[in-house]
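Subject: mismatched residue count in predicted assembly?

I count 1185 residues in my input, but I want to confirm that the predicted structure covers every chain. Input:
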Amino acid sequence: MTSATEIDIRTEGVAAPANYLNINLGVRSWLLTTDHKRIGILYLWTILIFFVIASVAAALMRIELLTPQGDLVTSETYNKLFTTHGVLMVWFFLIPSIPAVLGNFVLPMMIGARDVAFPKLNLFSWYLFVAGGALTLWSLVRGGVDTGWTFYTPYSTTYANSHVISMAAGVFVAGFSSIITGMNFMTTTHKMRAPGLTWFRLPLFVWSLYATSLILVLATPVLAITLALMSVERFWGVGIFDPKLGGDPILFQHLFWFYSHPAVYIMILPGMGVISELITCFSRKRIFGYGFVAAASMAIAVLGFLVWGHHMFVSSQSIYAGMVFSVLSFLVAIPSAIKVFNWTATLHKGSVSFQTPMLYALGFIGLFTIGGMTGLFLATLAVDVHVHDSYFVIAHFHYIMVGGMVMAFMGGLHYWWPKITGRLYPEFAGKLAAMITFIGFNLTFFPQFILGYLGMPRRYHAYPPEFQVFNVLSTAGASILGIGYLLPLIYFLWSLKFGRVAGPNPWRATGLEWQTSSPPPKDNFERTPIVTDGPYAYSAEEDVDLNLASV
Amino acid sequence: MSILTSQVSDRPAFVAEQFDDIDQQRDAAKLGMWIFLATEVLFFGGLFLAYTIYRFTYGHVFVDASRRLDVVLGGTNTAVLLVSSLLMALGVRAAQLDHRRLLVRLLLGTAFLGCVFMSIKAVEYHNDFVEHLVPGAHFEWKGPDPHNAELFFWIYFAMTGLHAIHVTVGIGILLVLALLAWRGKFSGGNYSQIEITGLYWHFIDIVWVFLFPLLYLVGHR
Amino acid sequence: MNEFHLFPPQASSAAHQIDWIYFALTALTFLICAIVFLPIVFFAIKYRRGSKADRSNPRVESLLIESGWTIVPLLIFIGLFGWGAVVYFDVERPPRDALQILVVGKQWMWKLQHAEGKQEIDELHIPLGRTVALTMTSQDVIHSFFVPAFRVKQDVVPGKYTSEWFKSTEPGEYHIFCSQYCGTQHSAMIGRVVVMEPEDYERWLNIGQPSESIARTGERLFRERGCSGCHSVNSKFHAPLLEGLYGKSAPLETGEIATVDDRYLRDSILLPGKEIAKGYQNIMPSYAGQLGEEEIMQLIAYLKSIGNQNPPNESK
Amino acid sequence: MEKVVAPKIYFRTCIALLALLALTWSIAYVDLGPFNLIFALAVAITKAIVIALFFMHIKGSRRILHLAAIAGVMWLMILIALTLGDYFTRGWVPLSH
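Triage response: the counts match. Full output below for your records.
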């Protein structure tokens, strides 16, 4: 194995060496840490809180939709539920999860650095994230918001009588946390790579984080100014989106979707990066077409900025602009297709083993392919006229975000869990949770494609009786999906105490992060490693038993 | 077998431990700042988009409304910011050359010109307030299309207000740096923070360079 | 209308066209899924760890294959885009000879009015086989008029007119939904389209007290609200004569040329100083706030009805 | 140590900027129709480039800083261009067949 450096193997019995976890203890050491690894874990706990709240909101909505007439909650409360689910999931779980948790932890180690470029700023971005979250929760406690996570004017500025400004302020503050993280990752990737680590020897997870940071940095400011303009217009009673002044509500949609479409690529790109890591490690083979997969990440980041108009085909946007956005939306689907085909080709002549991360990776490829293809339905002008703002759209983006992004996050979390905690999760429970999640997910969201084409509009508190069958199926699936997410929470906590001790490299992976002990020391490496080879230098012939014989 | 670099131990105190040497730290700081300036361009960009669209849609009202703004004050403000940029650039040079007292004087000079800019801005806002040009309840407009004129002034106050907030933050940073420079914190090549603030200040100047013609010189006077 | 089915009824000419694209896309999705899932299952089994398969010199790079699965999807996608764009271009432009219906969306109900004057709330009776064009605006927030059975949807935006058209091919009752979130009772802002045989439609039109056609209501408003005070031959104010104006292009004070369509007339009523006709000063007062959305549409319908009369000559 | 720029370059830059300001201010009193806007923008862009090159030391700095400087403006152009693409083509819809 011509990997970077060998590391002397520590025997089991010696007292645990100083690592980033036990180097200093106490709440103060955690709340004032500038160690990228600890900040990653702080983010993990924070997004878990928001994920739980948003999931409860989703569960209430799904129970409400069991019956055609709205009898569990009033329509006012239902509107606040889907807004809470939207805002918390998008800005406080999906966008931060892989970049801020796994990215913060693993990026510096993958490029052989001691920390990110600006550690103090990194901690500041976590505090911004918590402040934003607190503001949002405060607005929920005061009575919530019923405008949907899209805040469309003139409803959000003139007609909504809920706590829009405080939630917009919360998202505004959390937006700057994303901007600073994005800037931090880009500077780190440019300036702090280990000697010998050229751009085309970077692991693909670093490439996807770099592409994500490009979007974070260039899209989030437009969200900040859009929410600021909306809030000022709501507060002052007069503004640029108000038709009475000759303003145009469609301008708000342009500004909002200029951020929000690239935002969906912020969510999926890191997931793709994780999948590239998992597929190569568990099929013991180099990625197929490394250059193309890396270039595809950058292409998605850039093309992602040109396509936002496909959210507005029926919003009185000019039909010629609609055609321009439609053809560009088809183009942006090509890099994603390239990635999926390359992952499939990677399995060829590999030595494929089915640990939990690999199950999540294969699940990702399956569901992301369906999600991506249904995206084409929405990019096709004529079909979008029928399915826009229907449950078809709901199913499409949940296939990408839950079927794609959350599966990749779970896969990544299982894959790097030994490195983060030094412990191994229980393999059978892991595989079981992955299967339950896969089945529950499909049962929840596939019926919604049919519902969508039948014409059930989204954000409906009550619906005609003929749609009930599919809604009942979807709710049943949601309960299974809920169990699928609960299991990992349990056995991850269990593994902290009782999990088998993981050696520095339980998966025999080739990344730099596996060339140091787990959990790693505070400065990641005793000596900065020199990289002499490209990533994923696996050889499928050499039979490696991954059944986690501890080192 | 790959060789391992020995830990660099003989580096100055102010180089943070995640960097190997001073050049890497300074380059990283500059790249980080330029990326932040790109986000600021897009942050102001949302307002520039709104301005562009409504200027093409309501061109004539924009011309009349722009004529109500005081171009003399606007022009002098531009000159004030340009000169403050000069002082800032000289300040960065002084920091590079370790001239501590010159650096402090130049930082204070830049901050002073920033305050001059803000006071001229305050005078302008007061005049607009007196002439009932502030959008909202008591906005008055005698010419045609009062609503679109109100739209122009809304954009005017949004853009210049956002810019003014940035200038105020800039002044605050400059005063803090002047204090730290007085205590000798930026001697011996540790001038990265001065350079970063310089980039930020020049960026504010560039934004105003665009705001002046677009708001004050719409059509001919 | 409420029996269970897997596929929405195809009740308009557009429905068939759009469903064909939908089937093509579904077939393509199954094809791509097969192209991805089958090899994964095959490789996963054949090259599972410990299997006796030939793993010598695996390929990790092939320009030919990469360009293959870039160009082929690109061509398929361009074809799909073209097909979708052609049908979209047809669906988005209302034909000229359609039955005109005015729709005003208001927080949480639809107010519809037929050209003959009959008004309906949350219901739309239309004759089978006739092309129907809706001209829509909103009194408050953005709504969206969505009839799944006709496969048509168009946002209804305050401050401007949007249009939508369909040609029904199946009699029956079909859902109307508001598909753009508009507030608390968004899910109650629903209704039904009743497609009737043409004779039944004529009979339906005449039951109840005779109603004044929209154009005549517009003419009455034209006089009552003082428009005719200026816009008439013998007015002492210098205001453009509106006969024979609709659809033509009007030169503006600024030298540009504006086509006199619904948008131009609406803006001239509410924001008179915006596009002043050539040779006239800006003396017209704004009617913003004094005319309801329906009244503005009725005035415009009247101006449309006199759109092809030539203006009466000056009576000196 | 980075190379230090001579003060006279800074003074010359400032004078050039003030001259451009005077130019754009005085031209504004001449009625050039649509060219007023084009001229004002051209002068503003020149001033911005001059500030970026000399005061912000883009001149002679690493290529990556050039990219970062241009990227922000490029993405703003994407936003404005495609949105104007919508606003300018709204009136083009001919009444159909």
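Chain C touches chain A through 91 residues (CB under 8 Å). Marking this ticket as 'not a bug'.
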